[in-house]
Batch of 2 targets.
Target 1
Amino acid sequence: MNLVIVIPTYNEADNIEAITAELLALPEIKCDRHILIVDDDSPDGTGDIADRLAARNPGKVSVLHRHEDHGLGRAYIAGFQRALAMGADIIVQMDADFSHSPQYIPIFLDILEQDPTVDVVVGSRYVAGGELDAHWSWWRRFLSWWANAIYTRLILSLDVKDGTAGFKAWRRRALEGIGLDRIRSNGYVFQVEMAYVAERLGYKVVEVPIYFEDRRIGKSKMTVPVKIEAAFRTWQIRMRHQDLTPADRMPEAQARTREVSAGTV
Ligand SMILES: Nc1nc2c(ncn2[C@@H]2O[C@H](COP(=O)(O)OP(=O)(O)O)[C@@H](O)[C@H]2O)c(=O)[nH]1
Ligand SMILES: [Mg+2]
């Protein structure tokens, strides 16, 4: 089985080496693992550090450099397309800043291995046992709570408790069926769009409680434009995807053709 861990980075020069080392060293992961760093031309030189990591770990680490406008959603789409083209069976998405502890990945993989009906495992801050770091400012906590418990819940009626979660393990078939061309978000609201489309298409989602630690080093990239996009895009997500049903899953053959045209690595 092939695992590709996709890590988007924007100015993570002080984190990327340590998180990569921790992921490469995780002893519990039995399958082949590959780390794909998706860097958006970080001004702090994260991309160069990532290139050095890739050179030092051939076949285990690679870098996708994007030179267009930076944005978490676009970076993830490019990363997921590359992961599929690499033949990934399972695709993990996670932040570079240690808020998503690598220690949870074996738990996610166990669930996927033990229950073949599960399509995606979500590391959740809002199920019993999940927790947010007390160091997160009251404003960030409030914003996250509001987005999850009120805003997306009222507009999208999401079943998942952590609709803005960014730590997930996808089975290949779910990303293929979602059809990444369908996803329009540029920024963080990408997480909500993916959660909504996955639910509309009837994919089975399992939430696992995680402790979300505040980043140790560096600054959050959650900016005002990112928040504004999230506010209006949530409505657009509903209008665009509300009629989707499981019959609208992208056929695998079509998904594969797209992968081929996306190129292989
Ligand atoms: N490639 C890319 N990565 C991004 C972008 N914005 C944020 N990230 C990465 O996404 C992850 C989460 O960002 P972070 O600033 O920690 O968000 P927060 O935890 O919500 O405050 C980190 O790994 C960031 O480096 C972006 O525009 N492009
Ligand atoms: Mg963070």
Note: The longest helix spans residues 138-156.
Target 2
Amino acid sequence: MFSQKVIENLSRSSWIRAMFEEGEKLRKIHGPDKVFDFTLGNPDPEPPKGVKEALNNLVLEEKPGMHRYMNNAGYPDVREKLANQIKQESGVEVTLENIIMTCGAAGGLNVVLKTILNPDDEVIIFAPFFAEYTFYIDNHGGKVVVVPTNMSTFEPDLEAFKNAITPRTKAVIINSPNNPTGVVYSEEVLKKMAEVLESKENEFSTTVFVISDEPYVKLVYDGVKVPSVLKIFKNSVVVNSYSKSLALPGERIGYIAVNPAIKDVALFTAGMIFCNRTLGYVNAPALFQKVIAEALDETVDAEIYRERRDMLYNHLTNLGFECIKPQGAFYLFPKSPIADDVEFIRRAVNYNLLLVPGKGFGCPGYFRISYCVSLETIKNSLPAFEALAKEFIK
Ligand SMILES: Cc1ncc(COP(=O)(O)O)c(C=O)c1O
């Protein structure tokens, strides 16, 4: 009666629901403060003051027409402001014509993929990856090609990348700062990837788009700089959102920035604006386009997350967990002390610790901790991690 594919995909992602239900059950038994739920990437800080002020002002101002349809790409004044900011930050001559406002990064990714994919075109993603990519690629008839990362850095394995590119490769999705590892790709690796791509594009006479999914770009620590993808890759598209940087995931606001150097960029952009409309998004939420235009310089205080990272990272590594120190985003991705990461997170539930298996990110043998919980909760969870380590790390 229903789409077979949807039913299959639903069961593939059923562990998310299972974890959620487990959490609800435990909270009822032990009380919410005794359950340490590290599963969701749902920012817990409130949006910055400037965002709330902009929202209040806009609502009180009540300009006529502010709730109407607009150009499917979004308000020109908002796109212009954003283009200026991107130009300043990247040094690339981006204009409002290169910006499309979207319903978050998820909406943006679907719009880009819909616009470029023909049936069975291949899209490369790097494991571990944000699991939704596989569904987005499938939504538009593409084929997922998973390429491993270098396990000591979690940056793309360049040799494997080179070998994975075929005449059918249409796009590569990169995500830095990364969910689930927190790694920021270095300029050196990105430049090498650009060389590999250019030589393969020449060999096959193809265009391969680099889709840079960047919702965590403002959440970096220790002065780390995220290299500009627009500067490094000619055929690049940045997909970004304010879900994490302004803690607004429920408001569904983001954008696509297209590299003006892409051949036929006007046609490409027109295609994406059409897809934004026909995928049913129509346009990004009107009110929040205006809000973010007033708050472009705002970011949630990354220090909040850095403190949490340090507390968890120091504790876990002291206990003997192997883990790369994240430079951004709000996740840790330690190695599971036993090969079966699903079994490991199942056993962690005995200590009221809710974690996500690496398997869900195409990377078995690891697990993800999302530190979108208060420092207090993290402090209270430390003995539980200690008990877990006692059971598994000798
Ligand atoms: C890597 C990555 N990309 C995209 C998204 C989707 O973000 P948005 O809420 O902007 O659609 C998320 C959300 O968690 C994410 O982690």
Note: The chain has a mean pLDDT of 96.
